Amino acid sequence: MDRKYLALNSALLFWLLALVAWCFNARSLTWLFAALTLMAFAIPLLSNQVNLMFKKQKITEIDKPEMIAPAPVSEKEPTAVEKHGTTVIASDVHFEGNIVSGGHVYVHGTLTGNIDSKESLIKIMRGGQVEGNITCRELIVDGKVIGQCSGDAIEICENGQVTGTLLYRTLAVKKGGVFSGQAEVLPALAEKNNVVGLMKENVPDTPELIPLQKL
Question: Which residues cross the membrane (predicted)?
Answer without folding.
Answer: 31-54
